[in-house]
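testing teh design pipeline on a random one, pls ignore if ur not involved
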């Protein structure tokens, strides 16, 4: 399975660079080759327990698929913005690609350094790839951009040491690269923009995302340190938790956001949410869907308590939430993407805050949340945190958040790029859901070395093609310009990757589909 997964990633890399070949293509190919070799060193370290931290079991390291995501995103973003003539975001794409390569190279060097005996051939490959990347960065980046890349690397190193120690068995090395690399980049962007505030420059909803992500991460780190010295399960700790959340929110996060958007954040948010009648209808509709999702949770737990044997939610039951998320995102993508952008940020902040309450057992809801959510655990929730629902939200939201709006004339990209915001809906909401449901109920022919079935994968591809046809019918802004063969190839490769990867598919698949569609 690891070899097939690697082959699929190599095919995606080569297809992308067949379209956008430039000096960074050599770097990406070199990085992919050395990541393929280093991945086996990481896998061996995980098997013998020689890794520095405790990583998630029952999965390989995932270094190769994770290493390619950020560099490829930067490359395709650079190409789209260059075609649109937006120099600022073209340079931003170069910085994103360079940062992704350097973070992946750091993880490779770390694995080679702690492997005993030292793997000579892998060291040589890593050295060659590093030389190519550094040489290209030297001739592509300005001094300020090099400093920015190194800042992200420094933040990533310190954040990894802190969070991987505090959260054992929550990530594989590849997932840690994606999640912590993304948080590091967001934190660096927020610091950079806070130090260079120019009134009227920048979209407030972008600042809202940056502040929300950094705010909830800092909140978690603060309470982790605090509850080392006091019991988090008491009423006094609960009062202190909520008081300090209010203090940090109103005393740090709100003033920070005010400095960036130059207006009262609460008034801006209320005005934004209720600006049009369409937004009001969407908010009411989303509230009803949220209530139905809560109803599913309570019903399944009531069913568990009425049965004598231990009850665990089935695959089909867990996919109810995928259907609800699709029903949530599709109207937002069609009618008001900015509202969907902000609503997804708010939902992410709420999800992470509720996870803090569950993890720290904050009264009165901490123990209740532990009981309710334990029903929906699977083998990927082996650490102290329950992250699958957060990954589902991220998988659906990242294509919306990462869509290069400034480089898209009339709010959409030409050709297959028009489907980029729908990447999460197609890959996770439709493809992964249909593959799981049909594969678990009717699948008989298994892919070699996996539990996934041929029938599930083929049904997923077919369902995504139908979904694309429905998007063409209902979203008038989508014009594919006869790029159907590329869309079919993209959907097929990502569906095959779903069958073979052991990483968090909710996070990985939408990003790869977005890369293919943007290319």
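output:
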């Amino acid at each position: 399975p690891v070899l097939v997964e690697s082959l699929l990633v190599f095919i995606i890399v080569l297809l992308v660079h067949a379209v956008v070949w430039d000096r960074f293509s050599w770097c990406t190919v070199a990085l992919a080759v050395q990541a393929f070799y280093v991945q086996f060193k990481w896998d061996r370290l995980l098997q013998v327990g020689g890794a520095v931290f405790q990583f998630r079991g029952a999965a390989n390291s995932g270094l190769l698929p994770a290493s390619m995501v950020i560099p490829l995103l930067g490359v395709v973003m650079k190409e789209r913005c260059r075609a649109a003539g937006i120099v600022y975001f073209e340079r931003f794409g170069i910085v994103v690609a360079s940062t992704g390569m350097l973070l992946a190279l750091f993880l490779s060097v770390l694995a080679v350094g702690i492997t005993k005996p030292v793997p000579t051939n892998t060291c040589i490959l890593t050295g060659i790839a590093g030389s190519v990347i550094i040489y290209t960065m030297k001739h592509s980046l300005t001094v300020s951009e090099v400093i920015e890349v190194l800042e992200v690397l420094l933040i990533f190193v310190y954040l990894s040491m802190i969070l991987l120690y505090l959260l054992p068995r929550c990530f594989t090395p590849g997932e840690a690269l994606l999640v912590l690399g993304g948080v590091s980049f967001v934190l660096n962007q927020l610091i950079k923009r806070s130090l260079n505030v120019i009134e009227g420059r920048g979209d407030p909803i972008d600042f809202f995302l940056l502040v929300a992500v950094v705010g909830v991460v800092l909140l978690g780190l603060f309470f982790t340190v605090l509850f080392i010295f006091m019991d988090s399960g008491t009423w006094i700790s609960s009062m202190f938790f909520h008081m300090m959340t209010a203090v940090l929110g109103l005393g740090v996060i709100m003033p920070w956001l005010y400095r960036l958007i130059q207006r009262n954040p609460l008034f801006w948010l209320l005005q934004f949410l209720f600006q049009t009648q369409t937004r009001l209808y969407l908010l009411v509709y989303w509230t009803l869907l949220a209530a139905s999702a809560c109803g599913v949770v309570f019903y399944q737990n009531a069913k568990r308590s009425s049965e004598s044997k231990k009850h665990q939610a089935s695959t089909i039951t867990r996919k109810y939430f995928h259907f609800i998320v699709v029903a949530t995102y599709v109207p937002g993508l069609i009618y008001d993407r900015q509202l969907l952008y902000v609503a997804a940020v708010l939902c992410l902040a709420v999800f992470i805050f509720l996870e803090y309450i569950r993890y720290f057992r904050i009264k009165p809801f901490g123990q209740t949340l532990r009981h309710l959510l334990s029903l929906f655990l699977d083998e990927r929730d082996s650490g102290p945190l329950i992250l699958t629902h957060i990954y589902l939200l991220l998988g659906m939201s990242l294509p919306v958040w990462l869509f290069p709006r400034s480089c898209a004339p009339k709010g959409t990209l030409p050709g297959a790029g028009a489907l980029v915001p729908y990447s999460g809906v197609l890959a996770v909401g439709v493809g992964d859901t249909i593959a799981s449901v049909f594969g678990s109920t009717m699948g008989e022919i298994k892919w070699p070395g996996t539990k996934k079935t041929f029938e599930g994968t083929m049904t997923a591809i077919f369902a995504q093609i139908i979904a694309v046809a429905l998007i063409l019918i209902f979203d008038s802004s989508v014009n594919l310009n006869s790029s159907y063969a590329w869309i079919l190839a993209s959907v097929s490769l990502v569906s095959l990757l779903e069958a073979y990867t052991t990483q968090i598919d909710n996070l990985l698949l939408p990003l790869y589909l977005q890369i293919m569609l943007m290319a």
